[in-house]
Amino acid sequence: MKIIRYISVLLLGCILISVGINFFFVSYHLLDGGIFGAGLIAHYIWRVPVGMTILIISIPIYIGAWFYYRPFFYHSLAGVLTSSFLIDLLAAFTPTTPILSPLPSAIVGGLMLGIGAGIMFLLDISTGGFDLLAQMISARTAWNVGILIVGFDLAVVVAGIPIVSFDEIILSTIAVIATGIATTMITAWGGGHTHNHLSL
Prior knowledge:
membrane; YitT; transmembrane; disordered C terminus; UPF0750_membrane; transmembrane helix
């Protein structure tokens, strides 16, 4: 039953993230934070697949996890591979006409990413990238993983300022805040730090 629960949460979380990115963020040229935001920036500039970019950027973080936080390496491997695959798979179904207007798209997309990441964190599943980095920092500090992710997310949004409009930056910031709120609430509700029962 544990493996069924693990796979179900993994797929649900990654699908929520993939839909949020492709159906709500890309439609309005919005940025997410963290590793997904980095993938979106690369996509907007060079038209490269978001998922493929996520995998490439995650490599150095995974090298660090292999040497210093190996349990997190194993727990996040399925998350980064599945989310990257589904993001690029669902990109083919991105609607040509936006589903919602800009502000609701930013909020709904951000909440979907936050909920997707949050429910996976409850089972120690990470989507890699800066989420994995946040988990590693959280393992050594008293900081909530959701709060750490907000910090990384906002940093990436700032880095994306040169390629998006002012309105898109505002909407992207709202999306990042929505993501952080959803992730923080879910991880706090589920016991706060998901690393507590890992064997480090």
